[in-house]
Structure formats: C-alpha cells, structure tokens
Amino acid sequence: VKLKKIDDVFDKVIQGTGVIISKSGYLITNSHVINEASLIKIQLGEITLNASVIFNDIENDIALLALQSDG
CB-based contacts of 11: which residues, under 8 Å, 6+ apart? Predict the structure, then answer.
C-alpha cells in the first residue's frame, strides 16, 4: 500500500507505505508518514482512496487508518 500525505502549509506531497490489517479497511503505517496531514490518499494498484486517522501515537511512531469508500 502506498500512502500520500498532502501538506497544505508547505504545499508538498510526502509518500510512505502501510499494511492493510483487516478486511474492514484498516491499515497501519508510521506516525511520521501521516503526522499533520490535511489529506491522506491510499493507492492500491490502480485505485486511489482517501483514508482517515483512527489512532496516531507519535511517541511510538505508529498510526491506524481507515479506508473511506466512495459510496
């Protein structure tokens, strides 16, 4: 899974990776990948989905995200 973090303050895109951990659309990544993001996009092959932050532990550098479906 490829992640893109869009930062409105510095108008830049930061990329990282993550792992899907459930059929419900939850995935884990490092906190520094998504920290302070205004928008998180997840790329699964040809498909791109938005994701929301469920949990972000900056001290331990881990975050839990949820994929958002279009409908």
Answer: none
pLDDT at 16 over 60: yes
- Strand intervals (E) in 8-61: 12-20, 26-29, 39-44, 47-57
Kindly tell me the sign of the dihedral angle through the C-alpha atoms of 43, 45, 48, 51.
negative
Query: d(Cα 22, Cα 26) in Å, to the nearest integer?
Result: 6
Q: pLDDT band at residue 53, thresholds of 50, 70 and 90?
A: very high
| pTM, entire model | 0.81
Query: By CB neighbour count within 10 A (0-12 exposed, 13-18 middle, 19+ buried), where does 69 fall?
Result: exposed
